[in-house]
Fold these 2 entries.
Entry 1:
Amino acid sequence: MNQPGAVPQQLDAVVVGAGFSGLYLLHRLRQLGFSVKVFDSASDVGGTWYWNRYPGARCDIPTTDYTYSFDPELEKEWTWSEKYATQPEILDYLRFVADRYGLRSDIEFSTSVTSARWDEGERRWRLTTDRNQQLRCRYYIMASGCLSMPKSPDIEGADRFAGQVYFTSRWPQERVDFTGRRVAAIGTGSSGIQSIPLIAEQASQLTVFQRTPNFSIPADNGPAPADRLKRLGEDRDGYRLSARWSRGGIPVETTDILGVTASEAVRRQRFEAAWGQGELFGILGVFADQVVNPASNEIVAEMIREKIRSIVKDPETAEALCPQDHYFGTKRPCLDTGYFETYNLPHVRLVDLRKQPITSITEQGIETPDESFEFDAIVYATGFDAMTGALVAVDVAMGGGLSLKDKWAGGPSTYLGLMTVGFPNFFMITGPGSPSVLSNMAVSIEQHVDWVVGCLKDMRDEGFETIEPTPLAESGWDQHVRDCAAITLYPTANSWYMGANVPGKPRVFLPYIGGVDAYRRACDEVVAQGYLGFQMAGPGGEQCRDGVIRRMQPDVAMVLEMMAELGLPPLETLPVADARAFMTAIAATRPPSPEVGEVTDGVMPGPDGDLPYRLYRPAAPPEGPHPVVVYFHGGGWVLGDLDSDDPLCRDLCARTAAVVVSVNYRHAPEARFPAAAEDAFAALRWVDANASELGGIPGQLAVAGWSAGGNIAAVACQKARDAGGPDISGQLLITPVVDSQMTRPSFSENGDGYILTGALMRWFWDHYADPADRGDPGVAPLRGNLDGLPPVCIVTADFDPLRDEGVAYARALEAAAVPVRHVRARGHTHTSVTMVGVVISGAPVRAEMAEALRGFFPAPVRASRTAG
Ligand code: N01
């Protein structure tokens, strides 16, 4: 071990942590000629695998993948003995890596960095260790691991117990023998679930104190999986590449089968295959929708519960072991070897803390309201202050200024999980806001290290000495991390992913759930765009490329990617009949729409023949009559019908408890301007006159429309005002067409690639209106008289060519003293907010639309149910 005096004063980089990340960082940085020192509080390499020596500790990603991949020679020299290696074997591997690359000479063991101060004048970090060493370094890199700071025991009396106390996260180096002892185990996360069966093998009596039952599947440990070995043998590089570009950092077959629509046979077959395979990403991917759809998730969850009930003989114990309070996967599921079977042993007992909480720990054991337990040993498997705990444990601060702990008091804020504003040259490996704990850590660590090392090299080459993200880039990334989590079920659980396991910790979803592949793409794009979102300075000058790397809602981006993969011809290149047939075919592939009370079709008289309509009646309560919303579908006056916007109409009806009357108007090119607008006005009048018969409250009439439907809705309101009726309570215009001028910036920004293109919009205009008519307020309501119009809720979307005309309409209406509620659909396209059941991130926007609609009516109507 190095002596304190041997530490150089000036270093290029200091790394905290000598686990998987720190070792690889040291190797890479040294290769590039940087001077580096690694500090670790442990007496050897290994990081998490140094500390977590508890019985049964193993990895839960197959060793074929839980391994370094940066050096093919290293891969040839090391062979793992099993599918899931034990902690001693993984520690041996990391020692082998340290020795093979001669890393130990630059690692200072049994030493912790205690404080870090940025010296702005020197552009360096000044670090202090617990051995009172003072260091200066250009770059300070935390490779301290996501699950390395044990959670302190938050149980009354924990320090009173006179017997032996063990923490799975700080297990002693020497062998612990529980033979003949009465042991308590507190905690049933991965550490508890792995250790409990082995403790039970020795203990004379084992009592497990369980607060939350956890989902666990059999690891099916044994030799490394044959299919993975085969693929690796045939094409190691290809295999590693596919891991790097996979969702979780391990190649798995993905599915597009939805749990909610799959047959019972398919459900069972897929579940049993995943159960038998014994891999986390297999059971997490039984169905494509199990992460986002509660019903689909429940199918998997219940099948796991069935397994638990079939294994555990005592029905009461079995029931207590069945997780019921969180969706499967939203707390990290476990892989086990004989965990549930352990409860069939006569000397093992489960105490359900939900029924019988711990009141205190005493000198002899554990007290609950009903019982006093005596123990010789207590094992705490109570988890970690995950992802942020180790980072804020070091007193990191700007020279005398804000500390990282203060900055993150309300939850961490990072750019890409790599850096944070206000802390130049401070890097995190697998920090919050990166895939980290949701992925195969080996792959994510290599990606982060490669990124950081590449960045430092680029800076050196360009003559930059400092790097820091911009506030805009960081807040944009934080938003994206939140957006990705928000479309999943994960934030609903009291998990350590949410910081919920540590009292007082802010409830924020900590990792990035968008996937290893999506994340890698974002990181690569940042570099390709000249370090977008970073500012750099040094003798080479100053550079700041401010911007946000991901502004689109993640599920919107997914839909666009899927459509791009289909390689469909642009609609405007098709004959109208084919374009309509295409829209019908697309509508047939949609997931089930929200339920409403009743749906009936009918016809109403129009100016030139009958107009078909579909009436959506809300489910009771409340009993009718209800306010009425007349709705006009989108489709550029050319496409669309009663089916095309059916899910949106159901959603509006369910959310507002209003009767929605969707009207099919005449389409172009068969019926050109002003046919559609005339039909819309006629429909309004007819519904108004027949409100009672339709189940509506007379006089409580609003109008709504999407896209071209928004156009004719807006025009109909102007017509109604001019005609002295009907009286309209309000208008909901969803990404409407309100002008014919296609020169606003949103057309150039968003005119291509977001489904509604500039070319398609021109095609619509050409079918609907002669150029000479396009300035007429009957087709361009923005150019009309806006005085005295009913209140408006207008929705505009960031990635919509029509965005700026929508914004202009909102402003013009405000200027005309019309009450306006402007809903900006952040990260959405022209079409995405209407994609009910497909684009989950549209739900909050639709909730806002519904709230606006309800607000148009005099007596607020409460939603009968919320729709997805
Ligand atoms: O910790 P945990 P862990 N009174 O937080 C309970 C990784 N890992 O060390 O759920 C009573 O998951 C707590 O209850 P609750 C893996 O990512 C990987 O097991 O908060 N009980 C829970 O049951 C894993 O997810 C491997 O209600 C209390 C348990 O303690 C992560 O590390 C192996 C309590 C803590 O579970 C953390 O796992 C091990 C209290 N006061 C770990 N406080 C591999 O296989 C907490 N609990 C690679």
Note: The first helix runs from residue 20 to 31.
Entry 2:
Amino acid sequence: MAKKEKIENLTCCEATQHMLKIAEKQGIETVFDRAAAMRPCPIGADGSCCKNCGMGPCRVPPSKKEGEPAKVGLCGATHETITARNFARMVAAGTAAHSDHGRGVAGVFLLAAQGKIPGYGIKDEQKLLQLGLDFDLDVENLSIKELAIQVGEKCVAQFGQQEGELVFLKRAPLKRQELWRKYKLAPRGIDREVVELMHRTHMGVDQDYKNITAQAARCALADGWGGAMIATELQDIMFGTPVPVTGNINLGVLKADEVNIIVHGHEPLVSEMVVVVSQDPELLELAKTKGAKGINVAGMCCTANEILMRHGVPIVGNFLQQELAITTGAVDAMVVDVQCIMQAIQKTAENFHTKIITTSPKAMMEGATHIEFDEHDAISTAQNIVRAAVENYTQRDKAKINIPTAKAEMVAGFSHETINYLLGGTFRSSYKPLNDNIINGRIRGIAGVVGCNNARDKDDETHLILIKELLKNDVIVLTTGCVAMACGKAGLLTPEAAKYCGPGLASICETVGIPPVLHMGACVDNTRILMAATAVVKEGGLGDDISELPAAGAAPGWMSEKAIAIGHYFVASGVYTLFGSTFPTLGSKKYTDYLFNGLEEEWGGKWDFEQDPLKMAEKMIAHIDKKREALGIDKARERVLMDMEMRRDLEAV
Ligand code: XCC
Ligand code: SF4
């Protein structure tokens, strides 16, 4: 068993440290304990193990001695092929997860449009019209209801489409679309690409690592420009496109004297209804009769980002805080749907009165209470869930309640439409001011820093070091997922965080009144970053393709297969994408070299891996500078600074 780390070395989040101490005292095991007790399997971690057939698992670790023939699997599969297949299957799983989320949203959207499910409606008609145009519908002559039905049908059909191209590919810069066609990366239908990738990685099918990687890209693009984009867009139409909103974050948002309901997971279909119903006078009255002052809903994981962005509902914590939230003893129900829900929470909950309520027929858990979410009866299902939590309030053991005080304020809700609006100034919405400031060098470049928290690293730390280093160098940061939460907890999602920025970026944040780190939503909302990047290209002056932008992406502490799918669609969209923590192909030098160096020539984007956050920042900035140079705007930066200096010098004289 590996040595157990000191709690201070496990996380830089105070509330997490506080709760880890309490968990230790009470003998409650957490993911951090399990991480110390079990090391990752070194062969699997490197992608060097194949178990795609019953003759294996075959292990093909790299040769130890120079000149030793490379090991192959029983079938003769090479190290590159095995590694590429493992990598590709992560992309398939990640795409499947996001896209099944998208499919769920599209199904509910269509039912809502048909008027079959009370509780859901159309909040953003503007965006509905935009989608109508994307699908070439007769927007001028259709009523909103007709348009919504047709858009819903079209979106649902994208999943099962067999031929042609996904419709949202048309949103990308023209040059990118041509590249996708040239290299046969343009996805035909969402499900088709996932299925084909699973087929190709089956024993004895595609044994060319480059060809596997290309299909993995076609699959990943079916996530980013397909399933996940459908999820984001339709959620915006149904629940509202986010606009800046303030909220609180961290375990301190739990309330000792109110019913605490945590909604945890990913799809806003359930959580939106729980938020609405928690204000139901009848349920509030019931809470009072149980001795509670109110009903406090808080979010966890990406569900939290969804309801924060649209309602300002507080975030209780990130992925690694799920067991600790329950350990506060103050959670009356944790309502979960899909993705990133640790099975361990049920065992943690058994130490307290907390009810774990599963809601999706796709995601059940032994020991948990299952209240299946029925969209036809969304309101009353949500009422049943909230009622179960309220009834449970009296079961609390007051002696076991430990709520840390730590919480921070933040601003979220930066959809790409909002950024457009905020930057555009008084007269018209536009990305022009952003482009101008990139060209004149006040903003050196754009970084997307996204992804998870990984229990193998010090929680939150790499994220924050990386982001602060980028800000210091005038790189504006777009964020989503659990990284957004790290930023929120550390105060980076407020305009005051301008103090971490270099002079150029600081001046922009101060003028526009925005934080230097823009919280754009959940992980499906990484599609907002694709749209923002596209908007910057289309605005002009910074090249004709996403790959020409002074921009880079990173996921410093990823853990989910969805992150690999996201990374791969960013790479296939032309972005330099840097992952931290661990990388699943390192066992094969040849394959890793292809991802890190070979791809760029054709796709314009590439993968990279780096664990040290300062070196990550250095690499991202070097890439940004390389792009600035290629655009011929590399000198602008010095010139602006010199002009100001010179002016000051002159004034002094
Ligand atoms: Fe999950 Fe989405 Fe990762 Fe957080 S960031 S650990 S995927 S909740 Ni999306
Ligand atoms: Fe081994 Fe080949 Fe089977 Fe994989 S597919 S387990 S490498 S025999």
Note: The mean pLDDT is 95.
